Amino acid sequence: MQSFKSGSVEPGTPDVGSVKAGSVKAGTTDSGTTQARDGRRRKFGAVDWIVRGVAGVLLVATSACGTPASGTTASGTPASGTGVVRPGTAAAAPSTGTAPEAPSTGADSTPLDSPTTTAAAPGIDVSGGGAQHGQSAVAGKALQVLATLPVKGRAPKTGYSRAQFGPAWADVDHNGCDTRNDVLRRDLKTLALKPGTRGCVVLSGVLNDPYTAAAIKFLRGSTTSSAVQIDHVVALSDAWQKGAQQLSAARRLSFANDPLNLLAVDGPANQRKSDGDAATWLPPNRSYRCSYVARQISVKSSYGLWVTRAEHDAMVRVLSDCPGALAPTSQPAGTPPQAAPAPQPAPAAVPAPAPARVAPAPAPAPPAAVYYANCTAVRAAGAAPIHAGQPGYSSKLDRDGDGIGCE
Predict the structure, then answer these.
(1) Structural contact between residues 191 and 202, judged by C-beta atoms closer than 8 angstroms
(2) Fewer beta carbons under 10 A from the terminal one: N or C of the chain?
């Protein structure tokens, strides 16, 4: 068959569907072509119809295979809210009467240990960003709180990354210690703390794991720290698909570091959980399931997140064994112990002040010398009669010597 260049018309090519727009010269029409050209069109007409027929078959086949079925995405993943079980559902998922809705695959990629303490990003105010380290906004029976949560399908996971929830293990409470070590100090016993870190970094301890009911020894190190991991009770990815996309950056940072949403747990159990919800994963330790589900409910209520229908029904089934279970309030993470201030030396005893010395009353001034020349002067001064010992007395004024002058 004769080959043709793209975008050009070769001699003998049918003009139907092949001639470029604007290639017919002004003043000419298809009906005005020469008889020779009409002959060529008739010669290749059969080939043209065969080519067009094959192209039509290929177009129909492509249209039939390229459009995803209703209710699924192009990748074959069920559309949100369909309740279809996705491949990879955790084996530890509880059996339910309805098909559980599995989360997207992949665990939250939060590092185990932070080499340095990361403060909250500049310009982000985490105060009032949610439950954080104060009391949760929720208190009451878990079943009653669950009844207030919206029930919807999952939103797309599009745009999710760990970075959407701020720097990992940020020091949101500004106590000088990252959130991971705060939680380790809260949940572990028999702690050994690293010197020179102001009581922040946990080197070792023992965890009574709530998920497996096992006692796990924690030893900080590149190959050992993973034995104990900090689990987001409501996984970050799960939260992203159930309302966290609509939260501010400050609220998401608070969510990722809220002690209410954090537990030190067995590392392998945390990996098996991945980002599952109550419909796809529950702790192997059945005695902890009520507390686990009640905590998830409290976290979702505190941050305005929703639950799927499968998740809601799974929570109801768990709480039917403990209808009085309460939604917990936020539990502050451990605070690094502060060194006791050195005792201040006792102030030196101040001696009692000596009593003030009272000055004696001044002696009366001696009377000025008084002299009377005669009794006339005594009488003029009003001192007559004048007695012996009185100022101005003299024997010359007392002629009879009886001690009284100027009688």
Answers:
(1) yes
(2) N
